[in-house]
Amino acid sequence: MLALELSWQVDARRYTAKEGALVLRTAEPTPGTEHLQRLLAERLNQITLPAPVLGLRLRSLETQVL
């Protein structure tokens, strides 16, 4: 996997923006999830969510054959 997107929906009663997203890209294809989990954790630690999250969606944006 070369790129993925984690998107979320927040409680609209507590905040005006209803959605947010985070895109992760890697320089090389990543067959396992350990590296992606570490990257995602690092990026999420830098984000302050404005309201409780009601739903998450993870999707692959770019893949490459190993």
Structure description:
This protein is an alpha+beta fold and 66 residues long. The chain has one domain. The protein has one helix spanning 34-44, and strands at 3-10, 19-25, 53-62. The longest helix has 11 residues, at 34-44. The mean pLDDT is 87.
Largest sheet: 3 strands, antiparallel
Question: What distance lies between the first and last C-alpha atoms, to the nearest angstrom?
Answer: 9 Å
Strand content: 35-45%
Count of beta strands:
3
Into how many domains do the coordinates divide?
A: 1
Uncertain parts: none
What is Rg? 13 Å
- Computed structural class: alpha+beta
Q: What's the tally of helices?
A: 1
Shape: elongated
Considering DSSP H and I runs of 4 or more, what fraction of the residues is helical?
10-25%
In N-to-C order, the SSE pattern is EEHE
How are the strands ordered across the major sheet? 2-1-3
The mean pLDDT is 87
Please describe the topology of this protein:
Blueprint: E1 3-10, E2 19-25, H1 34-44, E3 53-62
What attributes characterize this protein structure?
66 residues; alpha+beta; three-stranded antiparallel β-sheet; 1 helix; 3 strands; 17% helix; 38% strand
Concise structural overview:
The protein is α+β, with helices and mostly antiparallel strands and 66 residues long. The chain contains one helix and three strands.
